[in-house]
Design a protein that fits this description.
It is a single chain. By secondary structure, the protein is an all-alpha fold. It has two domains: 85 residues, no CATH class; 57 residues, no CATH class. 72% of the residues lie in helices and 0% in strands. The protein has six helices and no strands. The longest helix has 43 residues. It is elongated, with a radius of gyration of 29 Å. The termini are far apart.
Amino acid sequence: MEKNKKGLSPVFDTFSTKVTRLTGSSGAFIIALCTIIVWAVTGPIFEYSDTWQLVINTGTTIITFLMVFLIQQSQNKDTLALQIKLNELIAANKNASNRLIDSEDLTGEELEVLKKFYIKMSEASKKEDDLKKTHSIEDAVADEKSKEQNQKNRPLKSDKAKKS
């Protein structure tokens, strides 16, 4: 892919990716742990003064504040890349429903409806003898239409009583 990025965004993107990888490493953890140990050991030297406490409080607050934005940037990028990969898998699979390609844009209520649907589909799959049989939204819609048609064609209990 051609990289045609302008402005501060690509610089921030590259920076946040590198920083989140670095800060997620075991080396970064060891440095942070050593910093806390050095700070704790120097407590008696500085007589546990307010300044001594302020140093660690200020340092951790600033680092935490900045890391929130860096991690969020990296997480947004990773989530988008994952969504694109999943969309490609859905689009490439002839048995998958293309209706789910933009599911990340659905509301919470719409996602709950889909979740309930897939729970029902999972329960239906457990009843199947064939473990490789697939179920899709389209299959379920066809099954629902078939059920509706069968119910329309079936006589009501009151109709049976009248015929008797």
